[in-house]
Amino acid sequence: KQEVTQIPAALSVPEGENLVLNCSFTDSAIYNLQWFRQDPGKGLTSLLLIQSSQREQTSGRLNASLDKSSGRSTLYIAASQPGDSATYLCAVYSGSRLTFGEGTQLTVNP
Amino acid sequence: ETGVTQTPRHLVMGMTNKKSLKCEQHLGHNAMYWYKQSAKKPLELMFVYSLEERVENNSVPSRFSPECPNSSHLFLHLHTLQPEDSALYLCASSQVGYNSPLHFGNGTRLTVT
To answer: How far apart are the C-alpha atoms of B26 and B111, rounded to whole Å?
Structure first.
């Protein structure tokens, strides 16, 4: 059974700092890994999808990497802004389903 | 409207009530999903419909009954719920295939009293 763990559970940083969120998964036989953002009281917004054959994906200030063999992914956020404050969730697609981690709650302080 | 729309946004119901959650997607997708999000727990997949057929029922109690009348609409019928069913219920859609990202609605916050 696939398990996804995200560390840290919560993170607070000053505005402008670069930061890294971590995601690990137990079964490396995945089709892809996805990063989502969730604002309070809202649904999830897809940020990046990395296929199993890829090593990284970039969108603006976000860069996600994937090391399938070690079961790890990182989400790098450059020059963080208060508007980046949200919960970030990692999910891996394996078997026939998407398995989510519990998320990292990020607060960027002005 | 665009995206995935869920109604109602908030719902309070007693344990003997019957209610339904509605989801509508305007993205031309052909797969739809129900997820449950409880505090301090990962999202739990409840049901998957692919091309209007239910392809996954993740051991969900029978007091939750999904319905997918067409590729744009998805319902979750609720009956005789328990207080532990209180959660955020999220609907999502995608194209069939594992490399299509999911698009989520804003959810229905359900409270069972």
So the answer is: 28
Nearest-CA distance from A32 to chain B in Å?
Answer: 7
- Terminal C-alpha separation, chain A: 41
Nearest of A7, A14, A24, A5 to residue A85 by alpha carbon: A14
CA–CA gap between residue B72 and residue B100 (Å, rounded):
17
Order of strands across the sheet that contains B64-70: B4-7, B18-25, B73-79, B64-70
pLDDT tens-digit profile of B10-43? 999 988 889 999 999 999 999 999 999 998 889 9
In angstroms, rounded to a whole number, what is the distance separating the alpha carbons of residues A10 and B96?
A: 33
B83 SS3 class? helix
Q: Which residue has the tokens 């995608």?
A: B94
Nearest to B106 among A4, A42, A49 (CB): A42
Picking from A102, A109, A110, A30, the residue whose alpha carbon sits closest to that of residue A71 is A30
Q: Work out the average pLDDT over A97-103.
A: 92
- Output the pLDDT for position B52: 76
- Which chain B residues are within 8 Å of A46, Cβ to Cβ? 101-103
